Amino acid sequence: MDLELLHFFQYKQGYRYNSDSLLLADFILKEGIKSEVLDVGSGCGIIGILLKKNISSLDLNLLDIQEENIKLIKKNLEYNSLEAKVFCEDFKNFNPLKKFDFIVSNPPFYRQGAQLGNDSHKNISKFREFLPLEIFIEKSYRLLKPRGILYFCYESMALSEICALLEKNNIKIIKICFVYKDIKSKSRLVLIKARKGVKSSCEIVAPFLMYENNHLSDKMNEICLRFGIKSYDI
């Protein structure tokens, strides 16, 4: 049987989705997700659309601060024959009438010490000053239902800050996975599953290697094949 492809339009110039979003979507699907979902900083909609395509029953809500991204999200939803609610709003000021069972996000996490470029679309999507970690976690707590789950990825070197802010906001990490380029590299990314208002222990799963012997690892190849994505520049 032929693999059904998902089609994604993205801007030739500007921020483009990368493997981080694919890794997070795979992590979420393996852990489980259902009911009312909010995807924060959706970009072209890659994470939310991957989740919706695999779990059609999701009540999906996609939020992004940039109008350019909202156009992409709507185009990608329509092209893939999927439905979701779409919001063009700053997450810091987002005050919906409902709360969510799950919040998912690949938030901007480049530090302020990194050099801002001339492309505002890339800057807003990449640099944490446009959505500081403390605000992201505080707002997620307020918008999650009791015992709601927050899935997100972030740079590994920020883990101590992440743990402190989650604890401050009564959100507990219950599963964590460190991502490595290869066996010789330091972890660059961490995938996190955290739950509001619980005291569960934290499970650290096996590390994820993107490359083995200078080739994509079997696990990374499996993810690429599973999602079957075809991208188009506009």
Write the layout of secondary structure elements.
Layout: E1 6-10, H1 19-31, E2 36-40, H2 46-54, E3 59-64, H3 67-79, E4 85-88, E5 100-105, H4 120-126, H5 133-143, E6 144-155, H6 159-168, E7 171-180, E8 187-196, E9 203-204, E10 208-209, E11 211-212, E12 215-216, H7 218-227, E13 229-233
Helix pairs in contact: 1-2
Task: Please characterize this protein's 3D structure.
- With 234 residues, the protein is of the alpha/beta class.
- It has one domain: Vaccinia Virus protein VP39 (Rossmann fold, 3-Layer(aba) Sandwich), CATH 3.40.50.150.
- Helix content is 31%, strand content 30%.
- It contains 7 helices and 13 strands.
- Strands 2, 3, 4, 5, 6, 7, 8, 9 and 10 form a 9-stranded mixed β-sheet that branches.
- Helix 1 runs parallel beside helix 2.
- The longest helix is centred in the N-terminal third of the chain and has 13 residues.
- The relative contact order is 0.17.
Key words describing this protein structure:
single chain; 234 residues; alpha/beta; Rossmann fold; nine-stranded mixed beta sheet; two-stranded parallel ribbon; 7 helices
Proportion of strand residues: 25-35%
CATH architecture name: 3-Layer(aba) Sandwich
Cα separation of the termini: 30 Å
Radius of gyration from the alpha-carbon trace, in angstroms = 17 Å
What would you say about this model in short?
With 234 residues, this protein is an alpha/beta fold.
